[in-house]
Amino acid sequence: MDKFAAMRVFVKIADAGNLSAAGRQLGLSLTSVSRQLMALEEVVGATLVERTTRHLSLTESGRLYYERAKQILEEVAEMERGLTMQTGVASGRLQVSAPSLLGRLRLAAMLPGFLAEQPRVSVDLMLVDRPVRLAEEGIDVAVRVGPLEDSGLIVRKLDDIQLVVCAAPDYLRRRGEPATPDDLVEQDCLAFGDVPGVAEWSFQDGAVRRSLRIPTRLCANDFETLVSAALAGAGLVRVPSWQVAHCLADGRLRIVLEAYQRPPTPLSILTLRNRLLLPKVRAFVDFLQQHWMRPRPPP
């Protein structure tokens, strides 16, 4: 047994609150996580975690071991960071988090370029639709959509995300172009959502924000499905402009209701202050800022 690896797994279990979440964050199977925990308990000669079907909690021995193990892991990480900073060469594993859709469609396509530039860096990409806790989850860099609270993190703005309503020219010729948001009641709308048949789109009418319940011909919890339907002339879709930039550029989709668009939402890179000193983190942040805004060719 690699005691250091098992210690890392145990700390992740305690931070995550359950074995499955720890496994997902570490890229390990539930079986592997469970085996390493049992092996560690056998080596230390104490039960560290009380496990039931629905609940996990640290024993008294577990709490004492957790506090010391976390301190040891952080000391080792700090030592490695210091050695890396002395060399000035970007190297090691980089832990990156991003929202699922943005990660799949935009960030993933950029990673080969970064890996080619930095041959000594490896990337672990975690795609999750929730705010990650960088320090607790061991994340070096997080890409996040939306306004940010003052959290003491280092923030670098990447872009503004603009939601646009658009449709295929053929659909607009058949059904007519809506002049105001109220006209959407007479249109076929393709909406993102988890509740079938229920969708709400918000618009800016002067200084007033308006939210409208819209009729949906197609409701899905996947933007790619909705964009494909819009391209086929099935109706109007509301999506981030970056996702359909190439479709708008070549005329396959056309924006409507542009005067009623909501203000854009910021897209930012987040990192811990001490992590930005690491060459691998600094190189990745610089790469994203340099390449994110470059126009992309149609697929």
UniProtKB/TrEMBL annotation:
One of its GO terms (molecular function) is DNA-binding transcription factor activity. Gene3D superfamilies: 3.40.190.290, Winged helix-like DNA-binding domain superfamily/Winged helix DNA-binding domain. Residues 1-59 form the HTH lysR-type domain. Keywords: DNA-binding, Transcription, Transcription regulation. InterPro entries: LysR-type_TF_proteobact-type, LysR_HTH_N, LysR_subst-bd, WH-like_DNA-bd_sf, WH_DNA-bd_sf. PROSITE patterns: HTH_LYSR. It comes from the Bacteria. One of its GO terms (biological process) is DNA-templated transcription. NodD regulates the expression of the nodABCFE genes which encode other nodulation proteins. NodD is also a negative regulator of its own expression. Binds flavonoids as inducers. Belongs to the LysR transcriptional regulatory family. This is Transcriptional regulator, LysR family. The lineage of its organism: Bacteria, Pseudomonadati, Pseudomonadota, Alphaproteobacteria, Hyphomicrobiales.
